[in-house]
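Q: What would this chain look like folded?
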Amino acid sequence: MEEPLRDVSDTALWVAMYRALESERPDAIFRDRFARQMAGARGEAILASIPKAKSLAWPMVVRTAVMDEIIMRLVGQGVRTIVNLAAGLDTRAYRLDLPPDLAWFDADLPAMVAYRAEHMAGVAARCRHEEVAVDLRHAAGRAELLARLPADGRPGLAITEGLLVYLTRDDVAALAGELSGAASLAWWLIDLASPLLLKMLARSWQPTLQAANAPMQFAPAESTAFFEPYGWWEVEFRSTWAESRRLKRTVRFAGLWEFLGRFRSAETRREFGRMSGVVLLERK
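A: My prediction, written as structure tokens:
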């Protein structure tokens, strides 16, 4: 019997299913009308194979919504180039209200790019959209991608959603240095995990991911200070927990957990506050 989750690329089908489930709610906080067709039957099978998968949808939904907000704010401030690394089945270039002169690059492995192209055939993007087939595991491929970004003097944005946690510290350091060296990029939007989060996921997601040779591993104890030697500084940290409360997409008994949290030390509360989040980094 084929394993539901074969490799790290299959996580894109899994996340697309979460976007589909949210989009189909009457009170959806975002609408991705392409998500279910992107996820397909394999996406449903993957979701069914992961223990408590549906009850753990909320962090993925929150991440999508918060990143949407930050992207649109930066676009409103003048960003006209966006490069989405390991784009997976992201459809923001098709579903967000983007200016037509914005250049959006979705970069991923050739098989993923071909899959996206097949499922989005005949659908017009909202901006100048380009699919880039590249193996981002290799420095030469990353350099080729960054060389394609327009050097028009306007600040650009890099996005790595759901990518860094699967990389090693050395891989993330190399990527951070390369992005910092790209003159066209001023911002980098990431999601970041902590060691505490990986410990909490050890019994739910991690076994399935390890079986697919895609374990979660990058969760720096120093948080965003990790990126400072490579020229990136935190300008905004949006706690997944806090945003889940704001967006009303949170875990059951969230109020009880917050009440109990009042009796923890200040240091423990800070640790939980930065357990997971969406982060905007600025190149200095």
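The domain at 59-283 is CATH 3.40.50.150 (Rossmann fold).
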